[in-house]
Known about the structure:
Bound molecules: D-xylitol-5-phosphate, zinc ion
Strand content: 15-25%
Radius of gyration: 16 Å
Distance between the termini: 6 Å
Low-confidence stretches: none
Shape: globular
Helix content: 25-40%
Structural class: alpha/beta
Order of helices and strands: EHEHEHEHEEHEHEHH
Largest sheet: 8 strands, parallel
Number of strands: 8
Amino acid sequence: MLVSPSILAADFCNLGADIEKINNSEADLLHLDVMDGIFVPNISFGFPVIQSVAAVSKKPLDVHLMIVEPEKWIGKVRDTGAAIMNFHQEACSHLYSTVAQIHDAGMKAAITLCPATPVDTLRDIIADLDMVLLMSVEPGFGGQKFIMHTLDKVRELRELINESGSKALIEIDGGVNAETGPMLAEAGADIVVAGSYVFKSPDPNEAVGFLKSL
Ligand code: DX5
Ligand code: ZN
């Protein structure tokens, strides 16, 4: 399993030290949750923070935009050096052109679905995607309970990917821990995002190592 720790659960007064823990772990990516208070009922952090994180992260950045009109921010995301730009299907009217612009900017493109958005809505664009991010909680907050129906969505998405010949990876975000991680591995997920499970753990390195081993 690939692992993308989310700094939303990190200690923002000691962010450098927390990122250093991830640098020294087996994590594959570093997940950054941007919220605008409009698409989701919370505000997290923006580009100045991502720039500072990018300067010290040894892991490629997996930027998750929970914002309206994500297409307006592609250039700003690219300027942080991010490897992957995730944007929400529910927040964007023109998926094709947004994905194309993300690719033109040199990033991998991922579409994110909220828990109640059907996987099948991606049928006509799946071939163009590098990754699909399935939310296993409502976006906006860390530390929520994993929605079990996500496991069915992972299996359905795997079928859609296989049928279409897409190379998209399946990433899951929300409530990932020692109990739900193994279930996701069994269902066929490729990448898990983990905030609380990693950063609230007494040993983040071990928490990442456990998820990696799945
Ligand atoms: C929620 C964010 C998640 C969050 C996950 O809107 O997208 O990335 O950090 O937090 P945990 O792992 O604590 O559920
Ligand atoms: Zn996220």
